Amino acid sequence: MNARDDARKMGAWLDSVHAKGDPFAAAIRSTRMSMLITDPRQPDNPIVFANDAFVHLTGFPREEVIGRNCRFLQGPETSRASVRKMREAIAAREDVFVELLNYRKDGEPFWNSVFISPVKDESGEAVFFFASQFNISRHKDREHRLTTDKNYFEEEVLARTAELEQALKAKTMLLHEVDHRTKNNLQLINSLLMLQARRVTDEASRNVLRATQERIEALGAVQRLLYQEHNVDTFDLSAFIRDLAGNLIAAGGRTDIETEFQLESIEISASRAAPIGLLINEVLTNAMKHAFVNERPGRIVLAARRDGDELRIKIADDGVGVRKDAPDHRTFGTTLIETLARQLRATLKRSDGNPGMVIEIAMPLDSVSK
Amino acid sequence: MIARKPLRVLIVEDEALLALHLQECVEEAGHTVVGIAATSREALELAANANPDLAFVDIHLLDGTTGITVAQQLVHQCKTLVVFMTANQKLIPGDFAGAAGVVSKPYTQSGLMSALRFIERCMNTRTASGRPPSSLTLSKNYQERWHVPP
Q1: Which among A180, A188, A195 has the least Cβ separation from residue B24?
Q2: For residues B55 and B80, is the Cβ–Cβ distance under 8 A?
Q3: Which of B105, B107, B109 sits opposite A213 (nearest CB)?
Q4: Can you list the alpha helix ranges (DSSP code H) found in chain A?
Q5: Is residue B120 part of a domain?
Q6: What is the pLDDT of residues B5-35, one digit of tens each?
Q7: CATH class of the domain defined by A232-367
Q8: Which fold would CATH assign to domain A2-135?
Q9: I want to staple B106 with a disulfide (CB 3.0 to 4.6 A). Which of A170, A186, A343, B97 is the partner?
């Protein structure tokens, strides 16, 4: 009771020294922003002035407010940390900005943006505290809704990503399955040809079957290199040439033929891998068959490089070379080479290797790569 | 000239045509095929009875991708030397499940025969005469065991 009297007295004194005509007083009394003045020199820093806006904001009539510390605005959900922050700033006589949950007289909570500032006299002592309050409930609502929305969207994105990853996994498994099937089927074709070739008694038929089998094996070499982990729509030409040359030499049983590779790393579009594989197989098989006849040892150089917008492949051997007296007869092999070259828009040139023979194949890169 | 001891070979492959082809290649190389199995159960039963020296094992069998388990059992129970035959090398674990190596499908006739020759020589002499043919990929374990040059 005594404390309240003191507070009322201080309030009355403030009124008297800031009477009508005082523009600052008028501003503080009539502003729509809620404002308080407290007296720290009285015990518990009571409110000595509250403007109309404060009464309107909090629902507390002025007589219930004067003489009390403004902690009556706090309630069960008010953050203790925010309260501590205010208390420490007031004790230190420093400005403080705090957003905290307060309660109106009817118990309804609202978010209060509070600014508290000490009023110091010439000696530096805090003689009053000035506080303004601003209802930011709507703002807080929006903030909360944004966070809720954000969380909702994040969850949705996670769910969609999980679905996409599932779909990708399924598609990848399907791709592997198809690749596996294709390789198995190529193996079946090869085995069928082999089983048949063994049972055929006449030499000519057996040779035909063997020749076909070798071409199928070249296709198998292509398939082995397709659909590697990193790239499903291109094909490593240099790896293929190495693989093919190794196979052909082993197939011929010729351990006395050396190979030298000068291969740039060139990626071919997967859709062109088969024709180019078959073409190189045909040319290389021919070269090996004719260059190193009669157990003549030797070496083959296989080179592949990019030259501007062209792909250039060179197969050079140091074998018997172009046989001047060789009969010029068309074989199926020749037909194959010409047909595949046409498809790839490739040109083939045979020249003297001195010794041996050099075959150069050139084709526009855009006919074999993406 | 080292006397060639014919190997007793088990074929574990569910595609009958491929198994037949493989059998004929193995027999042409001078070895004996002790059985052909299409499921993991058949494979293990045959192995228990026949005790093969060498087994060619496809990973995909009639009862699923059980080839890896078959290989493990063959290596542990029967001390068989196992070589995988598969189109899908990715399914093979890092340690090859104890197998000596893998031949990738589709393989060439000559690739298969040279792989067979290489393995036979390694089994008889305990050491490799050189690098394996390109058709055969050896496990790290067997590269060391057979002193394969790098």
Answers
A1: A195
A2: yes
A3: B109
A4: 2-17, 23-30, 52-58, 62-65, 80-91, 137-199, 203-225, 237-252, 270-291, 332-344
A5: yes
A6: 789 999 999 999 999 999 999 999 999 999 9
A7: alpha beta
A8: Beta-Lactamase (3.30.450)
A9: A186
